[in-house]
Amino acid sequence: MRPPRLLYGLYERRLARNLDRAATPRHVGVILDGNRRWARALGNPASHGHRRGADKIADLLRWSEDAGVEIVTLWMLSTDNLQRDPEEVAELLEIIAGAVDALADSGRWRLRVVGALELLPGPVAQRLARAEQRTARVTGMGVNVAVGYGGRYEITAAVRSLLTSYAERGMSLAEAADAVSVEDIADHLYTKGQPDPDLVIRTSGEQRLGGFLLWQSVHSEYYFCEAYWPDFRHIDFLRALRDYAQRERRMGR
User: Does 59 qualify as catalytic in the annotation?
Assistant: First the structure.
């Protein structure tokens, strides 16, 4: 066993050393996919995979910090996931809330909960909100925790919020329709005030977005990794950064 670990360490250090720090993405989004399939492959219940996946999050954040990333967005639970078996959802929400509490208690990262908290059970939503509040003064890397998140839901909520703000200013529907702009909608998204993600990573081999940051990822680069999320390694993260650094970003031009 020792030679493979030794070779892995050498390759990992070489990858890290050769990365172009000037090409580090400011904002990385990660779709944490594959927990259930990882557990199923081992003959374990889904909760085992969710717990193992939760344990991996702090590693990813440390790797991101070391690389110079400024913001990480973690998609931990989608609006579609809320339609799964109620017992599994309840257990998953408890695992997520525990993981978010641990991140907040570390005092290392500034958390922002992004998602439809109104769709979550009240105690869970309150727990997530308190975790965010505890990190309000933290100056470290920003971490968006996407729980109960769906891209279509976010855009719908943003437009609804924008129209409400127009109505409060006494604007008619025709005036609101004439005034609405891309910038106005962006200002009502969950991630308002943040740069859009430069790089989006999805684990588990699935090559689709599934509704993740639909508005914000219009110019993002995508990296699809075969490993299930619990098996995602530092070397996989470094490969994603290397791949990103080698691309020519056209930004729609």
Answer: no
